[in-house]
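Shape matters. As here.
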Amino acid sequence: METAAETTEAVQAVIVAIDGPSGTGKSSTSKAVAAQLGLSYLDTGAQYRAITWWMVNNGIDIEDPSAIASAAGKPEIVSGTDPAAPTIVVDGTDVAQPIRTPEVTSKVSAVSAVPEVRTRITELQRAIAAAAPGGIVVEGRDIGTTVLPDADLKIFLTASPEARAARRSSEMKSADVQATREALIKRDTADSSRKTSPLAKAGDAVEVDTTELTLQQVIECVVTLVEEKRAAK
């Protein structure tokens, strides 16, 4: 007969994949859902930003895929999975702030498109998800399709380009919403058209359009989906 602790553990063991383009509320939603449900949290985009930051700081030619491929295995990347205080460290250096600079943002698509980089980071992501006690919310662009195709629940967040640009401009304290919109669309195109693990909605993912929803409404929607999945396990 199971103890209460064992029953609780069984109920909590759920892996949630949340995918979607920038500006859909993915990170805020994922962190809040993980915190509310007692799950670990992984921002996979931060890992790609981290390896891009390392490439830039070590003089790797971002225009040369072979140079990127050769260096892909060198940096040590460690991700903290506490949703209340997620961390990202490269070779012992906290890079949570440096990886959010415009320079890194403008180069992350080129670096993340290199197959050797995706293989390296995907292996890291799978190891983190497998080791997460009780379950984890993993957010990114190819989680449900490539990284964790057997996730218990897959969610794909979408929103209109205008809504996404307004949110991202607000986050970045930028007044140029039009420029932000163009940058988002450019990145969408790059991420959706790359040969290796493109940004795509998994066939069995639940699509949630966040255009007209507040962040709290999106969080409540996803929490409900996770709780329904838990109850069905």
Notes: Residues 26 and 116 are 26 Å apart (CA to CA). The domain at 14-232 is CATH 3.40.50.300 (Rossmann fold). Confidence is low (pLDDT under 50) at residues 1-10.
